[in-house]
Amino acid sequence: MKNLFGLLFVFFSLSLSANDFELVKKKAEIGDSASQLQLGITYEYAYKNHQEALYWYLKAAEQGLSGAQFLLGVKYYRGMGVLQNYQEALHWYQKAATQGHADAQSHLGLMYSKGEGVLQSQKEAVKWLRRAAGQGHSKAQYHLGTMYYYGKGTLRNNNIAYSWFLLANHNGEEVNLSKFKMNTDINKSQQIAKICLETNYRICE
Known about the structure:
single chain, Serine Threonine Protein Phosphatase 5, Tetratricopeptide repeat, mainly alpha, elongated
């Protein structure tokens, strides 16, 4: 649902008429953070102007808007409109993640897992991936499953790993489940996943 909201926000940003664009721009210029974010998205996706997008994302991010903080992190991570800088990406992902932004939590977890811009820590990776997974973030659920499957940052547990793969599949991620069936109690994993969904991700292990 959170990802759907983000997609709808992008869609409406791209659908702005000339008059609406000017109205949003005026609101952004007087400090409205939501308008600053919307303006940044419009510049990035409608006009392909990464530097203007970066400028408005930063304005909104500095006011604490988690969506802008996340998109600013993406800019620095990929080097779009700015020199690639993993430390800056990490900084903005961290700010958004601590506010509960699932995409930022997932990205932050992967940066810790790979040691990008930060000392590698599989335990920190699991911590942030688990938070995103608990919000129904399918990619985080898949990556958390791999952490359990290979015993990175947590004790290896094939059954819990497979349950996260099932949940990721359930939420739209295409996971090759046959790859992870070895030494796994499928029935037990299915039961874990079922309870996890029924408890809204409160009991998943």
